[in-house]
Amino acid sequence: MSKRFLIDPQTTQDIQLLDVTGRSIWGFFNHAITAGGEDFLRELFFNPLSDVDAIKDRQLKIRRLEPVVQEDFPFYRMVVIDIEKYIKRSHSGERSGWGLLDLFVAKAPIYYYKVSSIIETCDFLLKSQAFYKKVNAHQPYDDIAEMIHIHEECLSMIFKGGPYNTEQLKINRFNLDAYDRLIRYELSGKIKQAIAFFYEIDAYFAVTRTATEYGFCYPEIYPKHHTSEIHMQEVYHIFHQHPVKNTIQMTREKRIWYLTGANMAGKSSFIKTISTVLYLTHIGFPAPASSVKTDLIDGVFTSINLQDNLELGYSHFYAEAIRLKEIVDQLDKNTNALIILDELFKGTNHIDASNAIFDIIDHLSHIDGPYVIVSSHVTDLAPRLKLLPVVDFYKMNIESGEEGDPRFTYTIVPGVAEEKLGMWLLKKSGVFQSIARLKDMS
């Protein structure tokens, strides 16, 4: 088994995990309030796991915040940044006596900076401790209980047994240095620990809020080859506001799918859905489905948005061949990674494409290797592929309207697509009218 979940830059681009120019899966979940929370969330998101217990542990850290998802989370990005900067400023630990010069310091910017930083630090400790207590009121968690205790140690020393109220601190030029030394020197380690833990909570809470808002499920994950199945109930693409949901079940016995369907029928969206959900599963995140059950898989690889490589002189067909070789070269023997090949070998003529697709699928079918989904418009290849026992056939269902026009359902059903919609789409585009207009102008 691979020691890590495999995914490469082309796949990351294909399924829009990170897209700096538009929508991305990362952006969909990235609602952390603080910069530190965002950094921690990024670490979670771009480091998929290959251990069942680690995935379940991450899911728990997200789900345990569900009972407080409607609670106020009164923290602000810049305030926490300021607190962290204040705590990290070095302090010698020496106590300074008060003298005549302190009368002038009391009116200096550094004085007001320290006062506001001390109050902000206390306010942060009070609010974060109150939030953690609400979480543990539903079910106690050891790490949160420990953090509540650390907060309590800090607050009791700052407020010296008095009520925990920042308005009663009464900071002045006579006690400012004592408070400053206490927070930046004596309690520095504990407060840094509290801030680091808060960043984790901020990151997990961002995912919790997203999952709750959209009603996502938490996938059930099993050891590799435990069930030998990938099952997704009512799954859909995360970007679709009014999604059509599909249910799929891939097995090792039928681990290669030949997916057909006309242009605009939804093939690309469907295969992106499957790969995205499997990735989310392996980072321990919730997924857009009513349920997901899968074994650990070794990785996800896609070939969807390939372009000609003019610098290297690659045609589209050759670029597809090179991409397929890149994918296979990253796999180990007996891998159960998922390979998705969208409109495979569309960069050549129909006969070449048909022969090339068959040979690739034939070779893959004779090894106990990856799950494979090949989407294609080459439907007349189906009779040859039916001779391969591990190949199954699915299509994007299209129904006929009252006037014989196609109705795209965006649902996947068993079978091979028979619809020929090229001419219908051409007529619908209005291109013939445009050509006729040119003719009339002559």
Automatic annotation (TrEMBL):
Gene3D superfamilies: 1.10.1420.10, P-loop containing nucleotide triphosphate hydrolases. One of its GO terms (biological process) is mismatch repair. GO terms for molecular function: ATP binding; ATP-dependent DNA damage sensor activity; mismatched DNA binding. It comes from the Bacteria. Keywords: ATP-binding, DNA-binding, Nucleotide-binding. The keyword Ubl conjugation does not apply. The keyword DNA-binding applies. Signal peptide: none annotated. InterPro entries: DNA_mismatch_repair_MutS_C, DNA_mismatch_repair_MutS_sf, MutS, P-loop_NTPase. Residues 254-437 form the DNA mismatch repair proteins mutS family domain. It holds the Pfam family MutS_V. This is DNA mismatch repair proteins mutS family domain-containing protein. It comes from Sphingobacterium alkalisoli.
